[in-house]
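User: Run a structure prediction on this.
Assistant: Running it now.
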Amino acid sequence: MENLNGLIFKEMIESGSNNLANHYQEVDTLNVFPVPDGDTGTNMSLTFSSGVNDALKVDSENINDVAKALSKGLLMGARGNSGVITSQIFRGLYQAVENETEVNGLKLANAFVNGSRVAYKAVMRPVEGTILTVIREASDYTLVYASENINITCVEVMEKLVEEAKKSLERTPELLPVLKEVGVVDSGGAGLVYILEGFLASLRGEKIEKSESAATTNSNAAQVESDEFGYCTEFIIRLDENNLTTFKEDKLRKSLGKLGDSLVVVQDDDIVKVHVHTLKPGDVLNMGQRYGEFVKLKIENMQEQHDHLVLDSKDDGNSAKPKEKYALIAVAAGEGLMEMFSELRVNTIISGGQTMNPSTEDFVEAIKKINAEHIFIMPNNSNIILAAQQAAQVLDDLDIHVIPSKSIPQGLCACMMFNPEVDVDTNVMEMSEAITHVVTGQVTYAIKDTTFDGMKIKAQDYMGIKEKEIVCSVKDKMDATKKLIDSMVDDDSEIVTLIAGEDTSKEELEKITKYTEAKGVEVEATMGNQPVYSFVIGVE
């Protein structure tokens, strides 16, 4: 095949999407930090499938029409930094074929180079050893090769692109020392290679189909999203005698992983604690009961929580409302956190955070339901900032300001500094300045044995993480929290915010509050009920 038209391109991108969907969990496991939020593969798969679904609906044989739909679908469906960068790669590819009905090998090579350039421009401070490096090196080397072989076919271009992408991916640990230390390649780059391999397979007449397990997982994910993550299901079981010696956390975790997300499974002697977001809580409980008797269980409908806590986000009657001067949007997960932001004048709270990165479209839809002259967005997670910024670019006729808060404490501090009585520029300056004075700490559990910054970490240990530094890794949650606080609070510290997660009791929060107050600082403590992190700590 010498030329690539819209029909062939559809087959190609569907194959790429299926290949990534079949391997997204492998990409997730490449997360450098051993924390339960490795979601690069999930984000990229949801992003790419969103674009492909739109592209497949296009009734055209022209590659520009299909590429345009793919680009728009990726743009709106982009989740996480990896998803946004992926959307920009194919935005650049579309720009290169915008006026073409079909392309030859050389034009295809040029299109991927343009995709690389557009992706780099979308990132303020590009980091080498990432997906950006993989697409740049692969496309540049491929274009040089294609230029020397001007009659090159599209299949040959993809063969060269895949070859060079794999080589580049293997080099990523040399460019990012942390990858080398942990012993992995870049997760975003790995996701891109799966997509490109799917492209090549299709062009060779070997289109990759989605595996049954991947199809089920993607279907469940789509359903869960439409139902605002379904039911938060949590239980504690005491293992019976038959399971006491044979119980395997990994086996239960794998089984529950097919029923939902935001999964936590922790064993302590004969006690096993489980947390999962699922559409079928009954199935989850039945599975848990096989191992022993329930000590405690709780099921909450997160749709009801969302309807109750998200202010104005369901109201489409903006035309009947007078236009406000300001509106605030924040991203948060957990009833307590949502209440905290609501009390700080936040109009709309988008449910999400770690493991639940909202898409560009989630932001766009939330913004459309707001009737205000000036809108401020607090992403509250470094992996969500690009999606928020992309939404602001999509709605460029509105005055939208993304305050680049990378954590919940930073977002709360930004909201505290918001003043409805001053002008926009002053608010942007004050809110942006405020987040630079917040140090964030988090306590969560390790998902694997590894070594990070010279520290040996064992699976299920509790880790105290100060910004991007793992301060400690110990068996006891309270011990980890105290060690983390010791590392964060110094003579210059004035205010400490303690936010307890859904696996933390009020009694445990009270003990940590007293421990922190003894250091001579003012302490604000609350039950945030956030998933994944037992404690989120902010120090100002």
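The domain at 310-435 is CATH 3.40.50.510 (Rossmann fold).
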